[in-house]
Amino acid sequence: xxxxxxxxxxxxxxxxxxxxxxxxxxxxxxxxxxxxxxxxxxxxxxxxxxxxxxxxxxxxxxxxxxxxxxxxxxxxxxxxxxxxxxxxxxxxxxxxxxxxxxxxxxxxxxxxxxxxxxxxxxxxxxxxxxxxxxxxxxxxxxxxxxxxxxxxxxxxxxxxxxxxxxxxxxxxxxxxxxxxxxxxxxxxxxxxxxxxxxxxxxxxxxxxxxxxxxxxxxxxxxxxxxxxxxxxxxxxxxxxxxxxxxxxxxxxxxxxxxxxxxxxxxxxxxxxxxxxxxxxxxxxxxxxxxxxxxxxxxxxxxxxxxxxxxxxxxxxxxxxxxxxxxxxxxxxxxxxxxxxxxxxxxxxxxxxxxxxxxxxxxxxx
Length: 365
What we know:
Structural class: alpha/beta
Largest sheet: 9 strands, mixed
Protein name: DUF6602 domain-containing protein
Order of helices and strands: HHHEEEEEHEHEEHEHHEEHEEE
Radius of gyration: 26 Å
Distance between the termini: 92 Å
Number of strands: 14
Domain DUF6602: 40-144
Number of helices: 9
Shape: elongated
Number of domains: 2
Strand order of the largest sheet: 3-4-1-2-5-6-7-8-9
């Protein structure tokens, strides 16, 4: 390079810019094309589990490449220090530089709930039934951040985590999915709701930020709040090129990365508590159990309090009852009643069967 050419290039570098406005959209469009091809190819696999594993692996590989290296992606379960366990999660993102799993196999891991920042559920086809499953899956995970005995999930800084869905396709329209979500969320505390849904080549669903359901935000902090329903992200360009469809997917990934980069959570688990508290809890249960049945699935706990339930059979007619006496919110009593549990006040000495036979509550203790 001679002096004249050098001076020309220097002038260009100081006074001009190379710009490629569609670099990211074209790059991620090629990734989406690979996902679509893999999805169609895996459709030839007969066994549903193996077919699903391949599709999860494809998404996991993309997520793993884009998130900061201090984080890891795995399949598995969340657990809290009282041994309450979530439903199985397709992809969990946790900070491997600060946390380690309690159980690790070649297929899945059990992680302390404090270590988890994001869960991604992978769906081949997001049907109405699968959407319901995702909602239950989300609740089972997020509720583990709240150790309480009255099923209260009050907003608290640093406790919430991010739950999203990636679907290869859906038989539902975007509008129908939003309608279902808004309807189901009426029964779900704000902190336990789904944060984001992306459907391949169809669009992105995010929380609305106003009561009129007119505006969305791309700020990761605001997307943690789900109290105004959902909206679909509009087309981000007036152009019709296929590459611009990848922008919704890129936003889906970017919001996850933003959450990880800007995380300020100081929730650090005490691993010894995960070992000690369940043992102590079991000791307390055994000391109070006598010959009655303890039903752990019916209870959450605060400290070492737990919901004790007892199964008794009427000596006269043979009808079986499950009794409990924990003071809870009325809607929780209603749910337990629907499940066949019977509440009794702690001051009650006797409870009467439909046939008139009496149960002595002192025998429950």
